[in-house]
Structure formats: structure tokens, C-alpha cells
């Protein structure tokens, strides 16, 4: 089964053997000498190992043995080897797939162990986090309790100063309420007294108005009685006044003129009476009751 091995060799020429190198070795060392020595060394060593050992298990062991053999062989030619490295190992595709599956199966327990360790560490981390959270909660609760205690103490200290003030405020409120109550009572009493006074004044006013109205009625009645009495006396003395009164009530255009029985009247008065379109009427009647008094004659003009 062919196997490809990629190798890198770091080397240098021995400065003390340059003459030997120049006389005995080919000019192109990196192409003619070193690759052949490396290839022959690996061809001698690789058959002693299985493919699996070369690929994974004993890869470092193979590299160390090859490095020693290559260093020994090249040292004889004046070439100092610094390092031999295995860059890559190329396997056939079928064997490579099978080997990879086998390696994966062999690595499965290791992977499970690693995952188990990781999960155990995660559990441990979770436990530590839970413990830390618990401690934080305890510390926070203790801090909150301490804060509440301090607040309670501060409130208690403040109450020592605010309680007297509250009592004074309560006393002041009570006094203000009593003052408002007293003021309300006084206002109610004053309002009631004012209403009583207003009622008495209104009663007195109405009484005075009633008295004044009664007095006016009495005066008017007395005046009417006196007027009627005077009219009765005048009518009894001068019956002709009835015609005058009736004429005044019948029309405002009737003019009444009273003249004495002896004919003593002024010509101007007569002329003024005739100029208005009226005529002077002759005496209508003669008073028989009292010969000493003058008779009244009425004349109407329209």
C-alpha cells in the first residue's frame, strides 16, 4: 500500500569541512544528495511500522528515528542537520476513510470523557453561581433589613420632634374649629336678630301705611261729606245749580253764566259771550224761598 510522506529538513554546511564538501560532494546538494538520503532513511524505517502507527500512534517516534539517521548520514558528508519535520502523511483514500472512522471510534471515549468533565465543570460552575447568588441574596436581605432598621430609628428620632408639632397642629385645628363654630353661631344669631328687626320694621311700616291709608280714607270721606253737605246747602239755596251741574257733566262745550236778577252786568261780558257764538238767555226762574238773595239765571250757548 503506497504511503506519501512530506518531509522538511533544515540543514547547513559545516564551515570546518568546506574543502571536503567542495572536493567530494556534488554542486547541487539540495537536489542530488539530501533528498536521496531522506528518502532512503524513511524507506528503511517505515516498513517497521503499521500504517496506523505511522499516521497517528508512533508518528513522533518515526520522526525522531528518521532525524537521527539523517543527521548521522549527512554529518559524514559535512552537512549539519538542524531539524527534521514531517509535514504530511498521505494515505490511500479507502484506508484514510477507514482509519479516520477507527480513530473517531477510539477517540469517542476520550471525547465522552472530555464532555463529562466539561459537564461536571458546568455543574460545578452552576453550583458556585447558585451559591454566589444565595450569598448575594442573603447580603442584600441583610442590607435591606439594616436599611429598614436605620429608617425605623430615624423615624423614631423624628417622631420625638414631630409629635409635639403634630399635637400643636391638632390643638390649633381644634381651636380654629371652635372659633368657626362660635362665629357661625354668632352669625346665625345676628342673622336671626336682623330678620326679627326687619320683620318688626316691616310690620311697623305696614301698620303705618295702614294707618295712613285709613287716615286718608277718613279725610277723603270727611272732605266728601263736607263737600256733599256744602253742595246740599248750595242746592237748597240755589236749585238752579242742578242745571249747571248736569250741563257740566253732559258736555265740556256748554258755558254757564250766572247774572244777577237786577240786570247789573257789564256790556263787555255780554259782548264776549256773544262773540263766542253764544246767546244770552233770559232769566229762567225766580227764587221764591229767599227774596233778599239774588236769583241766578243760566243761559247756554253752543
Describe this structure in words.
- The chain is mainly alpha-helical.
- Helices cover 70% and strands 11% of the residues.
- Among the domains are: 4-91, Tetrahydropterin Synthase, Chain A (2-Layer Sandwich); 242-301, no CATH class.
- The chain has helices at residues 18-24, 29-32, 34-45, 51-57, 59-75, 93-237, 241-250, 267-275, and strands at 4-13, 79-90, 255-259, 297-301.
- The strands form 2 sheets. Strands 1-2 form a two-stranded antiparallel ribbon. Strands 3-4 form a two-stranded antiparallel ribbon.
- Helix 3 packs across helix 5 (59-75).
- The longest helix has 145 residues, at 93-237.
- It starts with a strand and ends with a strand.
Amino acid at each position: 500500500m503506497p504511503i506519501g510522506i512530506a518531509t522538511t529538513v533544515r540543514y547547513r554546511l559545516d564551515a570546518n569541512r568546506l574543502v571536503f564538501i567542495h572536493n567530494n560532494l556534488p554542486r547541487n546538494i539540495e537536489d542530488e544528495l539530501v533528498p536521496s538520503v531522506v528518502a532512503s532513511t524513511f524507506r528503511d524505517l517505515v516498513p517497521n511500522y503499521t500504517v496506523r502507527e505511522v499516521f497517528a500512534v508512533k508518528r513522533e517516534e518515526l520522526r525522531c528515528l528518521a532525524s537521527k539517521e539523517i543527521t548521522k548520514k549527512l554529518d559524514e558528508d559535512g552537512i549539519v542537520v538542524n531539524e527534521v519535520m514531517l509535514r504530511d502523511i498521505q494515505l490511500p483514500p479507502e484506508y484514510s476513510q477507514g482509519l479516520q472512522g477507527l480513530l473517531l471510534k477510539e477517540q469517542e471515549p476520550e471525547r465522552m470523557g472530555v464532555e463529562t468533565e466539561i459537564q461536571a465543570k458546568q455543574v460545578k460552575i452552576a453550583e458556585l453561581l447558585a451559591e454566589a447568588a444565595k450569598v448575594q441574596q442573603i447580603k442584600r436581605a441583610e442590607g435591606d433589613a439594616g436599611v429598614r432598621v436605620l429608617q425605623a430609628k430615624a423615624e423614631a428620632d423624628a417622631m420625638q420632634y414631630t409629635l409635639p408639632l403634630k399635637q400643636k397642629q391638632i390643638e390649633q385645628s381644634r381651636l380654629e374649629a371652635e372659633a368657626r363654630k362660635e362665629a357661625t353661631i354668632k352669625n346665625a344669631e345676628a342673622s336671626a336678630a336682623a330678620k326679627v328687626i326687619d320683620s318688626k320694621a316691616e310690620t311697623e311700616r305696614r301698620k303705618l301705611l295702614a294707618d295712613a291709608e285709613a287716615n286718608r280714607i277718613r279725610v277723603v270721606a270727611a272732605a266728601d261729606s263736607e263737600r256733599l253737605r256744602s253742595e246740599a246747602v248750595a242746592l237748597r239755596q240755589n236749585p238752579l245749580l242742578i242745571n249747571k251741574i248736569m250741563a257740566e257733566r253732559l258736555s265740556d262745550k256748554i258755558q254757564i253764566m250766572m247774572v244777577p236778577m237786577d240786570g247789573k252786568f257789564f256790556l263787555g261780558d255780554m259782548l264776549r259771550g256773544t262773540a263766542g257764538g253764544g246767546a244770552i238767555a233770559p232769566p229762567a226762574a225766580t227764587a221764591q224761598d229767599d227774596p233778599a238773595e239774588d236769583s241766578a239765571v243760566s243761559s247756554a250757548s253752543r
